[in-house]
Design a protein that fits this description.
The protein is of the alpha/beta class and 392 residues long. 45% of the residues lie in helices and 12% in strands. It folds into three domains: 13-211, Rossmann fold (3-Layer(aba) Sandwich), CATH 3.40.50; 237-308, no CATH class; 318-391, RNA-binding S4 domain (Structural Genomics Hypothetical 15.5 Kd Protein In mrcA-pckA Intergenic Region, Chain A, Roll). Helix 8 (160-176) crosses helix 9.
Length: 392
């Protein structure tokens, strides 16, 4: 994204932006905050929307602060869901945070990014400090948040810890003296709490810019790893290309706008052609960004070979039975687990039950079925995009 565009281009809400732009006009280098909780190891294309906006502020010469919520990750924020996120161990959070940074710098300029962790200040707070912060907010104000109000009306339990989350996120802005905070539309309430806490402390209030939530592969719900409708920064080229090709045509244009900042004039040109070609171009551009032009070209060729001509891809991962400690009469579920292509045995079992695992084109009937005679290679297919070859 270039600095020539209005900085609020593509945003849904831009609260307090005029005052912040006056600070910029006076020559002040703004502090732009984007917080991410390392609850899972991968960033998805949904994160790309806000990271692009943070990069836009970098390109205007401002300080980008990437805040790793290693402390808030221990609390859990529902953010529109009906239950709290699972609490992770410190080791899991630390490992996830490291992968987040490596992936975020695929979009951000690392040399111009300030990385902070909110355990820096919350780790030393006392219980009295926590109570003092809690006095800044009322229960009635907390129930103004949509997901809290909905859960309260439905009689779904809300823990006091969850009520503390917006306060914790808001206090981050106080410590960082943020001029602008970025987030998805589901974070609007939390970011407004930051403005209120800054005002209470006598600080200039941050502007709050919200970005649209990217719809996932199902074409209906927000992209989320918990829903399985996501594309990850670290997806292999072939899988990334194939996932992009699977999105409904109707949301393809939002991907162009939100992820590639494509102009309306160019979108009009793309719309004038065949939707399949427009989607292949979308997949090519995004796969090139996270991998390379060569990898994107191979992914397109593989896609066309598999989906247009109904053939197996020429290149696919191989799983050696000997290396995995398996035999031809071993249960097929052990082979699927050894392939590393499934998040869990439960997921592989679910796909078998749905007829989604094929062995040389024939559906696997049960998780306990034998792997079968591999000969020089036995091709397994999971869903539409995942292939691997079992070899001796």
């Amino acid at each position: 994204m270039g600095s020539e565009r209005p900085i609020d281009a593509g945003t849904v809400d831009a609260i307090g932006l005029e005052e912040v732009l006056q600070r910029e006009a006076s020559g002040r280098r703004l502090r732009i905050k984007l917080g991410v909780d390392p609850t899972r190891p991968d960033l998805t294309f949904g994160h790309m929307v806000v990271l692009n906006k943070l990069r836009a502020f970098q390109d205007r010469g401002h300080e980008a602060i990437l805040l790793i919520g290693d402390y808030t990750a221990t609390i859990g924020d529902p953010s529109g869901r009906s239950e709290t996120r699972p609490v992770l161990t410190e080791e899991e959070i630390r490992a996830n945070a490291e992968t987040y940074l490596a992936q975020a710098f695929l979009l951000l300029d690392e040399e111009r990014t300030t990385v902070r962790r909110n355990s820096e200040w919350f780790g030393g707070m006392s219980f009295a400090d926590c109570l003092s912060l809690a006095r800044r907010m009322t229960v009635a104000r907390m129930l103004e948040r949509d997901d809290f109000a909905k859960r309260y009306a439905e009689g779904t339990p809300i823990s006091i810890v969850e009520f503390l989350y917006p306060l914790v996120q808001g206090y981050d802005s106080v410590v960082l003296e943020a001029d602008v905070e970025l987030g998805g539309t589901d974070q609007l309430f939390n970011m407004l709490v930051g403005r209120a806490l800054q005002k209470d402390r006598g600080q200039p209030e941050q502007a709050v810019l919200t970005l649209p939530l990217l719809v996932g592969l199902d074409g209906q719900k927000k992209m989320s790893k918990s829903l399985g409708n996501y594309i990850a920064f670290r997806d292999p080229p072939g899988e990334m290309f194939g996932k992009i090709m699977s999105i409904p045509d109707a949301i393809m244009w939002d991907y162009y706008r939100l992820l590639l900042d494509t102009s309306e004039d160019e979108l009009a040109d793309l719309r004038s052609g065949h939707p399949m070609e427009a989607k292949k171009e979308l997949a090519r551009r995004l796969t090139t960004h996270f991998h390379s032009a060569e990898a994107a070209g191979r992914a397109r060729g593989e896609f066309e070979q598999v989906f247009s001509r109904g053939e197996n891809p020429e290149e696919m991962p191989e799983v050696s039975l000997a290396a995995a400690g398996l035999r031809e009469d071993s249960p097929v579920i052990d082979l699927l687990a050894a392939s590393g292509l499934f998040p869990s045995r439960k997921e592989a079992t679910r796909l078998i039950g749905q007829g989604g695992i094929r062995r040389d084109g024939v559906p696997v009937g049960d998780r306990g079925d034998p792997i079968g005679p591999v000969g020089t290679g036995l091709v397994y297919q999971a869903g539409k995009r995942r292939f691997f070859r079992a070899v001796p």
